[in-house]
Design a protein that fits this description.
Length: about 290
């Protein structure tokens, strides 16, 4: 486990590109984010259709889609951000094939589980705690955001979950802010996020309306739209939908509610294998 809240990563000899970046949607909650010289993988899930993701307590869910790429096709990575330790976010294939020396930023419960699996370069963050990675001429700050993976007392039976706020900076100047909800339900603590971070550029919204034994464990379309209203990102991108039968709220539900709320211009939709290319204004990018 990484002891310091800051690390320096190997950098390129050339200054990082600051005016352009991309988000590639692999499937489930898995994306590859490239910006400011960093390549970041989130919630790696590379199971294929028909393969089972363990959900704990002897339960599992069988994937009904394929990832856009195989794990062997991943580009060189700087780090992984993991919202929580569940089989549809860090599956058995990933445990077997992902580089054990790769830096993984996650919550303390997940870090402990990963350490037991041989992943010893983990960074465990408590809510609102910040980890800083420096590479070449840019800095990435990752702050753990609040998250609740189940209603009421059920939270104690589920793995702890965190959202993430990524801040890319150069010479102390903000370049870009990206929020990842993680597998959370809509609850009061999320309202603190825009108070602390009022200028979020992009938000990755974990949807699906996951239900197990009749209880909802991730946001459905209605809650997802409410979170967009609360966080007020310039652009929201829904992920974590339609991949497993326990996901009971399809993307179409979210789309209908986005339209009803008049938020179409603030939401960008990605299918598996699609890339969201973004630009950062030259003034903002230094």
């Amino acid at each position: 486990m990484v002891k310091s809240l800051s690390v320096s990563l190997p950098g390129d000899t050339q200054p990082a590109e600051l005016t352009e970046g991309s988000i590639f949607f692999v499937g489930t909650a898995t994306v590859i984010l490239r910006y400011a010289g960093f390549t970041i993988l989130t919630d790696p899930n590379f199971l294929h259709s028909g393969e089972k993701a363990p959900l704990g307590y002897g339960m599992h869910s069988t994937r009904i889609t394929d990832p856009a790429i195989n794990i062997e096709e991943l580009p060189p990575l700087d780090l992984v951000i993991l919202s929580h330790y569940h089989g549809d976010h860090f599956d058995p294939l990933v445990e077997q094939k992902l580089d054990k020396n790769l830096l993984i930023v996650t919550n303390p419960g997940a870090a402990k589980a990963l350490n037991a699996k041989g992943f010893h370069r983990t960074m465990a963050l408590q809510t609102w705690e910040t980890f800083t990675a420096t590479k070449s001429n840019t800095t990435l700050k990752i702050t753990a955001m609040p998250g609740r993976h189940g209603p009421g007392l059920l939270t104690v039976a589920l793995p702890p979950v965190m959202g993430s706020l990524l801040e890319f900076e150069q010479d102390g100047k903000n370049l870009l802010q990206l929020y990842i909800t993680g597998d959370t339900l809509l609850y009061e603590d999320l309202r603190e996020i825009p108070k602390r971070f009022p200028d979020i550029d992009f938000a990755l919204i974990h949807l699906g309306g996951t239900r197990i034994l009749g209880l909802m464990l991730t946001m459905d379309g209605r809650q997802g739209v409410e979170v967009v209203k609360i966080i007020q990102p310039k652009t929201a991108i829904p992920i974590h939908y339609n991949d497993y039968p326990v996901f009971k709220s399809p993307l179409e539900d979210f789309k209908k509610r986005v339209k009803a709320a008049g938020l179409e211009l603030r939401v960008h939709y990605l299918s598996h294998g699609e890339t969201f290319n973004f630009t950062v204004p030259p003034g903002q990018a230094g």
